[in-house]
Amino acid sequence: MPVFALDPSVAIGATLADDMAACRTAIRAGSKSFYAASMLLPPSVRVSAYGLYAFCRLSDDAVDEAGGHRGAAVARLERRLTAALAGRPDNHPADRALAEVIARHDIPEALPRALLEGLAWDAQGRRYDTLSDLAAYAARVAGAVGAMMTLVMGVRDGHALARACDLGVAMQFTNIARDVGEDARAGRLYLPRAWLDEAGVDERAFLVDPRLSPGLQRVVAGLLAAADGLYARAEPGIAALPLRCRPAIRAAGTIYAEIGRAVEANGLDSVTHRARVSGARKAGLLTGALLPTGRRRGLSAPPLPETAFLVEAVLSHPLPAAHRPPPWWDFSGQVVRVLELIEALEERDAFRRSAPS
User: Fold this and answer.
1) How far, CA to CA in Å, does 40 sit from each of 43, 207, 243, 264?
2) 269 phi and psi, to 5 degrees?
3) H or E stretch covering 136
């Protein structure tokens, strides 16, 4: 049974609200970390996030559950995406929700196409020689999602997009480090071959009989270190997001980073243990995500070479006039921006007054 499933009965005579409710219900059951962080998003952004993430998860599950027919599964997803992009989605809640989100937020076709390209690499059983090769995969299956979420939040700035892609890649590295044993038992191995060779881990023998070894522990530790560097690199991008969206994205990053800490607490054993973050710990991290942060140093760092194509896809995508930011003489548009700035300053001052002297 798929980990992530949408109620097919919703596909008959459904409204957009029905579709989004179905996406929310499925995400709540199938992706607890994302659901927990999403509760901090403003309602309007949260609804679009559910629609976007539902299609991403459905696509991932469709390939995972296809067995020896993964190539055909990817081809079906490509067809469904093409239909959604054309405004004629399949009669399924996730497809209709995706079509709505793409149209509402002017998401370039290249971003969801990149996600499906990454899933096609999964279907091919592709292996990755270097960390850069692995980052190229992570850019597609996770960085693209980060970029799309940034657009859903109404931000199209290139620096913010680059940092969102950093966060997506970091999360994917964490997932890979956590799921080494589970992936190996399914015939998959994502760890960089060069690292495995250097650590003396025979990848063929490992896939036949996954076992923990000091060499494997060093590889997992290295991947977690790479993820931590990307979490730090992504942090300045949060300050470039709308004020009310920041806690959710900060929470998502800290919860995933905490998975890495749980892997370490298990002795870097991702073969016989699957690291988990307790509900109580998630609650603490969610609370901590509400604290303000204004760190912007590092925001303008260039995108990773492996994610630059995603940023460029957005920057080169023509935006309809109705969706462009207001010009300087648009008084009402500028008032909104000034009010957000005042709110941010008040939040900072309140935090300073509450901080111990």
Assistant:
1) 9, 40, 11, 28
2) -95, 95
3) helix 131-138
Burial (Cβ within 10 Å: 0-12, 13-18, ≥19) of residue 346? exposed
CA 183, distance to chain mean position in Å, is 19
Would you say 110 and 119 are in contact if contact means Cβ atoms under 8 Å apart?
A: no
Q: Which residues make Cβ contacts (< 8 Å) with residue 213, sequence separation at least 6? A: 200, 201
Q: Quick one: CA dihedral 189, 138, 307, 225, positive or negative? A: negative
CA distance 268 to 273: 9
Query: pTM (2 decimals)?
Result: 0.85
pLDDT tens digits for 86-135? 999 999 899 999 999 999 999 999 999 999 999 999 999 999 999 999 99
The rounded distance, in Å, linking the Cα atoms of 16 and 19 is 5
CB-based contact 102:120 (threshold 8 Å): no
- Return left, alpha or beta for 154; rule: phi > 0 is left, psi -120 to 50 is alpha, else beta: left
Task: Report the first-to-last Cα separation within the chain, whole angstroms.
Answer: 55
Query: Could you give the CA distance from residue 272 to residue 211 in angstroms, rounded to a whole number?
Result: 8
* Residue range 232-281, pLDDT digits in tens: 999 999 999 999 999 999 999 999 999 999 999 999 999 999 999 988 99
Other beta carbons within 10 Å of 316: 9
Spatial contact of 89 and 99, defined as CB atoms under 8 Å apart: yes
